[in-house]
Structures are given as C-alpha cells and as structure tokens.
Amino acid sequence: MLYLNHNLDLLHSSNHGWNFPPISPHFNSPLLCMKPTIANYLGLADTHLGCKEHERQALLKIKQDLIDDHSLLSSWSSDQDCCTWSRVGCSNQTGHVTKLDLSVSSCFSPRLLREFIASLSNLGHVGLGSANFGRNIPFPFQLGNLSNLQYLDLSGNNFNKPENLEWLPQLSSLEYLDMSTVNLSKVNNWLHVVNKLPYLTSLHLYSCNLPNIFSIPLVNSSTSLDVLGLSNNDLTSSSSVLEWLFNSNTSVVDLDLRFNEFQGSIPDDFTRINSLAHLYLDSNEFEGEIPKAFGGMCNLKTLSLSWNYLNGQLDFIQNLTECANHSLEVLRLDGNQIMGSLPDDLTTFLSLGELSLFRNHLNGTIPVSLGKLSNLEFLYLGDNPLKGVISEAHFSNLTQLKYLDLSNTKLVFNFSSDWSPPFQLDTIMMKSCQLGPRFPKWLQTQKNFHRLDISNSSISDTLSNSNWIFSSQVLLMNLSHNQLSGHVPNLLRDFSLFPILDLSSNKLEGEIPRFLFKAVDLDLSKKYVFKASPIPMYSH
User: Fold this and answer.
1) Where's the Leucine-rich repeat-containing N-terminal plant-type domain (predicted)?
2) C-alpha span between 68 and 71 (Å, rounded)
3) 3-state class (DSSP) for residue 204
4) Strand, helix or coil at 116?
C-alpha cells in the first residue's frame, strides 16, 4: 500500500528543515500499472499459433474473479486470442501462456492463485507484485510447481510469515526473484536456499526482516548474481552475508546494502568485486576513512555512502583518479563527518552527474573547475562551512544542472547583471547564502523550479515584479528572514498543487492576496502588517 502525501517530497526525511537534498528513489511506485522490467516482456510474443483454449479459459476465470477497478485487464475478451492480451505473453513455438503479470491487482484471492498455478503450468514469468492478496494469507508454496519459472515477483504482499523457502530450489531455472517486503524473519536459512539457484542473476529482498546468517553455504551454486538488494533488513557486521558476498559473488554489478546495521570500517574486500558498478552503503554505521582502494574500482559508476560516521579528508577522491574517475557518475557522501576542502581540479570527473556532499565539515572555497562538469545534474554542498565568492565561471558549462543546494554556507554570489545561466533549475536551495541586496537577475531567469529557498539571504527588495517567484508549479517557497518590503501583488495565479509558502520575518504590508490562501501552509508571521480582508475558502 502506498500512502501519498503531497508534501512528502518537500520535507524530505530530515528533522532539520528543508535543507535535506532529495534522495533519489530506489523503489518503483506500486501505483504504476506495470513495472518497466515487466512491461518489456508483455505483448511481444509471435501469436501465429494462437493460445491454448484451456489456458484462455483459465485466464478468463481469473478476470471473472478479480475486482479490476482500473480496467487493467480490459483487453481480456472471450472472442480474442489470449496471446494478444495485455499482461500476457505466449511462446511462439508452442502457443502456451508463458508470461502473466497480475501486479497491482485488486482483491486477488488465495484460491485464485492456486487455480492459475495449476492451470498455467508452462509459466516462465509471473508478476504478482502488490497484487493485494489481503493480510495474513498462506504463502503460495505451490509456486514451486512451476518448474519453468525464470522470473518471479512477489514483492509488496502481506503473506503469513513463511517458515521456510524449501520450494525455491525446485525453480532451478529462476533468474529473477523479488520478494521485497515479504516478512522472512522465520527463514533462518534464507541465504543457503537462494544459494542453490544456479542461474539467479537478480535478487531483491528489501525490507524482509531477514535474520542474520552466521555460516556461509559450503557449496556455492549461485555465482551468477548481477543485482543484489538487501536493504532495510538490520543486517549486522557479525552476519556472514559480507563474507559470502566477497567469496562467492564477485560478478555483482549492482549492490544495495542500505539501511542496515553494518559497523566498523568499510572493508577493502569490496574491491574484490571487480564488476561492481553501483554500490549503496547508505544509512549504516560504518566509520573511519573511505578505503583508498576504491580508486582501483574501474567500473564504478555509483558510490553512495551517505549517513554513516565516515571521517577523514577528501583525499580518497584523488585516489579515484587511478581509473574510477573515468566512469564515476554519482558520488554521495551526505551526512558524514568528512573534513578538508574540495580538490582544486574536478575536471577528471567529467562523467559526474551527481555530487552530493551535504552536511559534512568541508571548508575552504568551491573550485572554479566545478563549472567544467557538463554532465552535472545534482549538486548538493549545503550545510558545510564553505566560504568564498561564487561567480558565473562556477556554473559556465553546467547545462544539465537541475538540483542545486548550497544552503547554510558562507558563500557570496557575485554574478554580472546580464549573465544568463545555461540551465533551468527544478530545486534552488540557497538559505543563508549572500545573494542580495536585490533579487539576482540570473535567478529571475529560472522558470521551471518547484522548490525555492532563499531565506536569510540578505535580500532587501520588493515583490512588485514577482511573477517569476509565484510560479504556478511551485511546491515550496521560502523567502523568510529577509528585508522584503511593500505589498504582495494580487496576481491571477492558480497553483497546480497546494504549496508551502513562507514569507515570514520580512517587512511586508497590505492586504493578503487571495491567491496565497491556496497554499496548504502559509506563514506570514512576524512583521507582516496586513489589512483585514475576508479569507476565501478553498477545498483542498
């Protein structure tokens, strides 16, 4: 179940205000009709043979018993070849149904699950992610009878806690397994079981309450893993998971161990995984310096180590120039205790698309070489005691820049009045930077932003020409703690969403414009002198 809050992405997940940079989401939304990985498989079969009649009838029975509120199965009709239906795929050699995606279905009964397993025995691809089985239903061990299964997605379902997964090794051809959020806390040998799947390439066990493993399998059958996701399972350093990983899975490309309880220094053994391209170790309890050996990981594209207890200097970045600098696209070190200054020469990281060093202890100035990173889209350097002057040279070639956070630094912006930046920003977070005394001309060229925080930025100006500020697509706007004066113009503005607006602690006066009352959170407190006027009612 997905709970939506239209302000969730505004407030991020920090208790320190609006400065925490957005985290790139790793999970697919269950509101989507089809996950991209599933959609690639559907409707692609050669249907010259036509589907088998008994399988067509079995599918029609499924449709009859399902509550399909979103008409996901509208193409399933009795007068058409079932191989042409959406969410169904057939073998072009036999005509048997081999692929079935019932993810994001409504009111999927356990009985129905058992029936289709029995009726569609040739299935090789089964998608049941977020299938809404209800709560506390028996785990479908019968899936072990689908001996041709290569792809199985059971994520996002509330099965009774299974006590074992002994049915899994029967699926000897399985390549993709996703059981994320299925409670596996009673399966003490989960690692030994998945280790028996010789062709498994992708394993996703996010938020499964996995118990720690204290012995590794003696025989390793599954050495083909490319993708391994074990985040949010409270795994600890005393577990044997890392030992198993380093000894038996050196072909992993994408490794996600976020939101666990690994402690101590980051092991150099990660460098033994020569193929590793994406490494996520965020939100653990790692400490000490970042291993210098990481510089030799020549395939590394993503290094994400945010929200640990890492310290030391940024010297390790220089070590990345050994070879990883040519491939590195994402570097995230937010929320650590890293000190020192940024390297003077950043031009060795021309592939970098995200540089996220938010909330550390970095000092010194931002090098002008930053402006050469033409692929940079995300730049988060806020909450560091950085200082110095920022000029247009720092942004000269940042044509892809979309997210900028320099909040709570001591940076002074000094741009020529006629400079027009080569980018259009989505997020502009520059709280407590020195931007004033007037609204910068370059800032007024930004037309597509959803979030703007320039509070406490030494601006002494009016809002007389503020069409650019009160953009219809704005989600968050904070202009507080400046010296803004005069009236807020009564614009004809209809916000597409209900934004958070903070104009407090300024010297504004006059009647509050009606369009401001469409905000879900409006703060005009402290020094706003306003005339009484009827407050219109808007339905949210």
Assistant:
1) 54-91
2) 5
3) strand
4) helix
